[in-house]
């Protein structure tokens, strides 16, 4: 494992009457995409903004490359906030040039334009670009200082599915340049597609952390069989199989796949539309937080 | 320096491309100056003004009948030369000095002075020694021009800077800048310089444009006027920066800006002279930078005052600028 680029120890953020962050410990290795997931109000934005150096923790510490956050951190980190406005009446090119002037070392703007596919909108007013184009521009601004560490706070919220997938490709491209990315997202498929490691937060704490595959295998040792919900429910109960209704299907959890399938066939259960579903991060999320991600 | 220039350029572009705001900033003072010039083009004063040197008690014993005459306003002066200057420029109709043997001054070309002389002869006889001064009239438009321009500068500086920073804070742009190596002082100084450049250019355009129609009186040096106006604008902008340094609420900022602008608009002599007002009102007016800006500009334009003569105003404007910017930078928060 590579050395951590950023570590957080015993982070606490206390607001009047609310402990938004409650003893978080993190160590994020260089070059990975780290996902911070959690329901609304779990404390992930507060946590990420403490890591970004935007807010100070009530207690605890954050170290970047082994040192406390300071002027060097501002030069070497890239941030895309969840909600950001830009200077009005400037074009995309002028906005890039403005931010370029704020750093000592920068990525060449032509390279940035190509990387983030901004060539077609360079002379457009930033107030008149689409949501996807805006997110690409905000990512370009986060990359303008050629940072080692990039924070992306829910970067695809509000984008249509196509724009979201285009953004994922962009993030993968950035990741391929050996950058470290810290990502918060509401979309489990996004976390699965992009993240090498995830941490799930709830009520200010990390309730589960690891690689997606590792967490899924830790939490789910079985598989799910889905069969049409005809009149089979009673018969499944008689067979000792615990079936749960899921839409117009019945779901059966089993860790003895071969045996269960044989049992169903022998008892004449209709398997014409049988599906075997793998566990997803969404299932994991519900399992560890007891909540759906959108709640 | 690179960061400062980048933010300065961006803010200038934002202002210049916001055409509706730019047009309003140019059109409002034009309309005010030209509108008021027509409104007050006639002499519609309802009372005569007599300056008094030597105190009202001595005046009472020297000229009791005159003092009880209606429609005459008596204004006390300590400095005889200043008071004579007012008569010279038709800003006062007559001056009476009762500190020694009673004398009066009138401007030989002033109709009001001519009439007051008849009144004083009728009320007190010809006991007062007659003195005359010569000097061209300062028209009301010449008198109120510095006030109008100063007031326009006040609104542009306070609201133009205050509201913009609060908007930046509210919509998250300041938070985005906080994530960069840009310092608070660099940001605030860029806002100050940007607004200063723009307001000076706009004021110069408005002055020149109005001057083509009206032809203003300018007795002093344009360079002195530019210096004083620049300092005045800096002082007013720094008040805007101070008010906007901490709040993210446009409503609160608007309220605070109104609390500052209304007293300045009423008491700094933009619309009417405070010479006849209560002493405490005159003292209170001195705390406002706009009072010093307008007083210095009027002295330069109407009386030909030199820089050394307006230095008290210059010091106040420089000190208030430095103090307000320092406090603003200290209490400034990005979010």
TrEMBL record, chain A:
SMART domains: AAA
Identification of the protein by name: Daunorubicin/doxorubicin resistance ATP-binding protein DrrA
GO MF assignments: ATP binding; ATP hydrolysis activity
EC numbers: 3.6.3.-
Record family assignment: Belongs to the ABC transporter superfamily.
Domain annotation ABC transporter: ranges: 6-228
Signal peptide from the UniProt entry: none
InterPro entries, per database record: AAA+_ATPase, ABC_transporter-like_ATP-bd, ABC_transporter-like_CS, ABC_transporter_ATP-binding, P-loop_NTPase
Keywords: ATP-binding, Hydrolase, Nucleotide-binding, Transport
Family matches, as Gene3D superfamilies: P-loop containing nucleotide triphosphate hydrolases
Gene for this chain: drrA_11
From TrEMBL, chain B:
Main location: membrane
Originating organism: mine drainage metagenome
Localisation: Membrane
Annotated GO MF terms: ABC-type transporter activity
Pfam families, alphabetized: ABC2_membrane (PF01061)
Keyword set includes Transmembrane helix: yes
Keyword field: Membrane, Transmembrane, Transmembrane helix
GO cellular component, one term: membrane
Coiled-coil segments: none
Annotated ABC transmembrane type-2 domain residues: 109-335
Membrane topology: Multi-pass membrane protein
UniProt gene name: ybhR_11
Segments traversing the membrane: 21-40, 143-166, 187-216, 222-244, 256-274, 313-332
Protein name in UniProt: Inner membrane transport permease YbhR
């Amino acid at each position: 494992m590579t050395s951590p680029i950023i570590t957080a120890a015993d982070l606490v953020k206390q607001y009047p009457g609310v402990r938004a962050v409650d003893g978080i410990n993190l160590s994020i290795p260089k070059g990975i995409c780290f996902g911070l997931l959690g329901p609304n109000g779990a404390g992930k934005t507060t946590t990420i903004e403490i890591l970004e150096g935007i807010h100070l923790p009530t207690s605890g510490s954050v170290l970047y490359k082994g040192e406390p956050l300071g002027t060097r951190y501002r030069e070497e980190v890239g941030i895309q906030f969840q909600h950001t406005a830009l200077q009005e009446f400037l074009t995309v090119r002028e906005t890039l040039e403005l931010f370029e002037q704020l750093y000592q070392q920068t990525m060449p703007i032509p390279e940035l334009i190509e990387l983030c596919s901004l060539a077609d909108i360079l002379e457009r007013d930033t107030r008149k670009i689409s949501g996807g184009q805006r997110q690409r521009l905000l990512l370009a601004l986060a990359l303008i200082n050629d940072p080692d560490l990039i924070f992306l706070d829910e970067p695809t919220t509000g984008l249509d599915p196509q724009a979201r997938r285009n953004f994922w490709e962009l993030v993968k491209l950035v990741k391929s340049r050996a950058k470290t990315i810290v990502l918060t997202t509401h979309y489990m498929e996004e976390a699965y597609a992009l993240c090498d490691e995830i941490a799930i937060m709830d009520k200010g704490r990390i309730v589960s952390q690891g690689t997606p595959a590792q967490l899924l295998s830790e939490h789910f040792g079985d598989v799910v069989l889905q069969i049409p919900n005809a009149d089979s429910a009673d018969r499944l109960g008689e067979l000792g199989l615990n079936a749960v209704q899921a839409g117009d299907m019945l779901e059966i959890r089993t860790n003895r796949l071969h045996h269960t399938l044989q049992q169903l066939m022998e008892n004449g259960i209709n398997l014409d539309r049988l599906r075997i579903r793998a566990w997803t991060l969404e299932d994991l999320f519900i399992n560890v937080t007891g909540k759906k991600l959108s709640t | 320096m690179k960061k400062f220039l980048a933010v300065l350029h961006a803010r200038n572009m934002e202002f210049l491309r916001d055409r509706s705001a730019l047009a309003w900033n140019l059109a409002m003072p034009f309309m005010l100056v030209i509108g008021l010039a027509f409104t007050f083009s006639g002499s519609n004063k309802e009372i005569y003004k007599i300056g008094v040197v030597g105190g009202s008690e001595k005046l009472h014993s020297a000229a009791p009948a005159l003092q009880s005459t209606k429609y005459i306003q008596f204004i006390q002066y300590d400095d005889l030369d200043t008071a004579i200057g007012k008569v010279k420029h038709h800003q006062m109709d007559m001056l009476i000095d009762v500190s020694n043997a009673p004398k009066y001054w009138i401007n030989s070309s002033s109709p009001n002075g001519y009439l007051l002389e008849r009144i004083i002869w009728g009320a007190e006889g010809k006991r007062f020694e007659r003195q005359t001064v010569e000097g061209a009239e300062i028209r009301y438009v010449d008198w109120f021009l510095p006030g109008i321009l100063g007031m326009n500068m006040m609104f542009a500086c306070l609201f133009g800077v205050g509201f913009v920073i609060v908007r930046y804070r509210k919509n998250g742009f300041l938070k985005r800048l906080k994530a960069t190596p840009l310092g608070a002082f660099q940001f605030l100084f860029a806002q100050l310089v940007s607004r200063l450049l723009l307001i000076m250019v706009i004021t110069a355009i408005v002055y020149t444009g109005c001057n083509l129609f009206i032809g203003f009186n300018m007795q002093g040096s344009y360079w002195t006027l530019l210096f004083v106006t620049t300092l005045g604008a800096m002082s007013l902008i720094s008040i805007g920066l101070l008010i906007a340094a901490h709040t993210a609420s446009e409503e609160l900022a608007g309220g605070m800006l109104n609390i500052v602008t209304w007293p300045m608009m009423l008491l700094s002599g933009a619309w009417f002279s405070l010479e006849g007002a209560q002493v405490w009102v005159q003292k209170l007016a001195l705390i406002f930078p706009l009072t010093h800006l307008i007083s210095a500009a009027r002295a330069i334009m109407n009386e030909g005052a030199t820089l050394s003569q307006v230095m008290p105003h210059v010091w106040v404007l420089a000190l208030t600028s430095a103090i307000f910017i320092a406090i603003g930078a200290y209490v400034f928060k990005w979010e």
